[in-house]
Amino acid sequence: MDTLRRMAAMFTCCFSCCGEGGTGHIPLKEMPTVQLDTHHMGTDVVIVKSGRRICGTGGCLANAPLHQNKSYFEFKIQSSGVWGVGVATQKVNLNQVPLGRDTNSLVLRHDGSVYHNNEEKNRLPANSLPQEGDIVGITYDHVELNLYLNGKNMHCPASGIRGTVYPVVYVDDSAILDCQFSDFYHTAPQGFEKILFEQQIF
């Protein structure tokens, strides 16, 4: 009988310590979600849809730098206008569009040109300009940025940017873009994967 009472007491103690509302367990820290960063955006930018949609005027960085070797992310053109997508450092001026005017950004512009340091680095084929509803995919391997249109490689590499870079998007003239940092519309090219926070890489 003594044994039963001791077991009951242990069970009660264990239940009250570790059960609901108890302090017996330490919750796992949730990994942050990669999304547009409202702390790094232009003053006239509006971010909605849980950090996934950009509208207004200006640019915005994502909240995760591209630390891993090979990253992939996508943008969907919800409404056309003036826009650009690519990579940038935190030194980029997000109030000055279009980006690509200095060494702090490397972007595909809505007209199909790829700009870095105010120089056209490459250009999409004339018959492959992104339209409303299209998905622009971007791969980056710390040397080269490559572009995909609706899952198809555009063979339009560009390079030149240095330092720690982040995904960047800018809009103007009624453009609306959605960012896709996971659950992609198209399968990431071989060897490339979604952006990982530094603590997820190791």
TrEMBL record:
Pfam families: SPRY. Residues 1-190 form the B30.2/SPRY domain. InterPro entries: B30.2/SPRY, B30.2/SPRY_sf, ConA-like_dom_sf, SPRY_dom, SPRYD7. CDD domains: SPRYD7. It comes from the Eukaryota. This is SPRY domain-containing protein 7. It comes from Menidia menidia (Atlantic silverside).
